[in-house]
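Lab notebook: predicted structure, single chain.

Context: the supervisor wants predicted structures on file for every construct in the current expression panel, including those that have not yet been purified. This is the next one on the list. No modifications to the sequence; it matches the entry in the shared construct table.
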Amino acid sequence: MTTKNVSGMMVSEQEHRMEFPGGGMMGIRSTHVPDNLRGAGLDYAVLDEAAFMEPRIWSEVVRPMLLDSQGGAMFISTPNGRNWFYDVYQLGLDPHEPDWAAFHFTSMDNPHIPASEFAAIQRTTPEHIWRQEYLAEFMDDAGQVFRGIRQAATAPMQAVYQPDHVYIAGIDWGRENDFSCLVVLDATTQQMVALDRFNQIGWALQRGRVKTLFDRWQPAVIWAEANSIGSVNIEALQTEGLPVRPFYTTNKSKAALIESLALALERRDVSLQPDPVLLHELAAYTLERLPGGGYRYTAPPGLHDDTVIATALAWHGVQQGGISVDFA
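Prediction complete. Output recorded below exactly as produced.
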């Protein structure tokens, strides 16, 4: 353990702790294991991203530690639905609760970010993310990524190939017990025309099913996720002459992919087939806040997202016309 003197303060980077010359200490603790926070009393506590903490961290752990000193606390967070953080915020708005005070700030209150930047973000961001992440509003369905799903499920289940239309496909390759899925969109009408989902068969058979759909719909481009499994299959399909392009998935590229599809559904820019698996996966898909302050899109534990990713990849192709665009 290394402790160093910084302007009279003893600082331990390993323990995330600062001791002040006149007495007193300030420490930073993770809330991943709530019971590890228990210990000596506190004079003041700051709970950062409080809405994403377990409710008992405040009621069972931190608040009892403030009793002896009659200390105070500050809760800072982006909203996460109407959970326990929403409840304490309401206490701050209640004139009959003099021990509490509430403050609301949006991202636009930051004087260092130009208004033009927010205008660009709002144009390309789904409404619920804009309202929660940038306007700091409490949303009833926080975490739900896709809205207007049922209203968008109007594409016919038995579509017919039109030789004068342009088609784009997206493939999500399954891992282990996951499914592989291929979705075809009609770029001319912006409607889904085909969805095939399969697992428990060999890669050669899976590529054969992709080839069958390609022969039927003749997509101009097939965007495929280029994970470790995908790269081998992509190369094999390219060798057979299929116009497959790799999509390299990172947290950043996946966020852009999902938000683009979410925005299209909100605006009714794309029509989906009323496939029950697709509609269920879209409805269950969530936005998860990460401990470091970022977020990621994911299916809930135990559920799949293969139809979501395949549809998002196909929509990416419709928007880009087969051209990959990177956002720095």
